[in-house]
Amino acid sequence: MKSEVMVGNKAVAYATKLARANLIAAYPITPQTTIVEYLSDFVAGGDLKAEFVTVEGEITAQLVCLSGSIAGARTFTATSGEGLLYMSHALHHTARYWAPVVMAVCNRSVRTMQPDHTDLLAQRETGWIQLYCENNQEVLDTGIMAYKIAEDDRVRLPVAYALDGYVLSFTAEPVEIPDQEKVDAWLPPFKTQYPVLPETWDHDLEEYKKHWAQGKGINEPFTPFAGDENFSHLTMVSWGKGHDLQWRWRAHQEAMMRAKKVIREVNEDYGKHFGRSYGNGLLEEYRTEDADAVIVAMGTLASTSRVAVDNLRKQGKKIGLVKLKSYRPFPDEEFRDIGKRVGTIGVIDRNISLGENGIAYGSIRSSVYDLKDRPKVLGFYAGLAGREVRVRDIEKAAEMTLKGAEGAPTWIG
Prior knowledge:
Layout: E1 2-7, H1 8-18, E2 23-26, H2 33-44, E3 51-54, H3 58-71, E4 75-79, H4 81-86, H5 88-96, E5 102-107, H6 118-121, E6 129-132, H7 136-150, E7 159-164, E8 172-177, H8 180-186, H9 205-213, H10 246-274, E9 283-286, E10 293-297, H11 301-314, E11 319-324, E12 326-328, H12 332-341, E13 344-349, H13 359-368, E14 376-381, H14 391-403, E15 410-411
Parallel strand pairs: 2-3, 2-4, 4-5, 5-7, 6-7, 10-11, 10-13, 13-14, 14-15
Antiparallel strand pairs: 1-8, 6-12, 9-11
Helix pairs in contact: 1-2, 1-7, 3-5, 7-10, 11-14, 12-13
């Protein structure tokens, strides 16, 4: 294993190279652009054996990856901000086709180039797994783990992993690069599933419905024909007029729920092989053991929040941090457990759902709502459109959380 000081975009490129992605399609957009440049250099120099497809826009980039994944390629794309919004309808198709595409997103606010998380969180209903990174080392590690998660037979869903634009994409940090041989041993070559029904198919929808009725959907993926392929993961299936296609949505939801266990397993196994893991893969707790209250942050705001927590701990204030890594699937069980241990949860959102609240705030509040003695959940907006968030801003939010202050979400920074 070697170390190199590199920007976040180069960490993305190295992760893709180490994972041996063999089909790359992307359209450059700031601050994602250098990911594409690094990867094209790897391919041109013979360091990565892959087909690099230059396209005219983000929709085509996503559809090339979708088609390639169905055909058996390990695919990768990257985008940011308006490019992600333009790609949106193709994201739905990739997820509905059960294609384990991996995509890096350099978070960029809409109508400005500076970072916030609204671009990717706006895609939360597309059916993609969403993972958020705190630093460049986590970017590289998550980029490798993403393929292991996406290609697991219990999941077979696309994964997007996010790094804050500029703050990580163009900022250099020391990063440990795993040996290619170790990654090859840990991440086997991609094996596609049947894209269409085989000629020997002799099952019907009623058999799958029976599988549901037995309560097996989430824990036991249905395998109706020889091999490891899942009926729930078939990509190009139409049952014709009169058939109920709601089952596709149910199967997708079951796969997303199974992904929680897979993410935990992959995170733990990666730690055993490479010496680094990130909480339980869904979230990471910091100094929460005896905390009276916790603050929640995503991406690079988690780093700032750690410093704020340490400062307040020195003053004898029992505050902890929860770093939310996986927004989809959402770790509701973990937040219910945390809600039983603390009196207040303060959620710092680098996003906003206009007309409502912060997006993570709403999800966390919903998760703990049914607890008998549920904690107060406070919301804070910070860092939208790239506004600087300082340690003292987080300390202010943490102080308000410790006091259990009531009221509408508060703007900080």
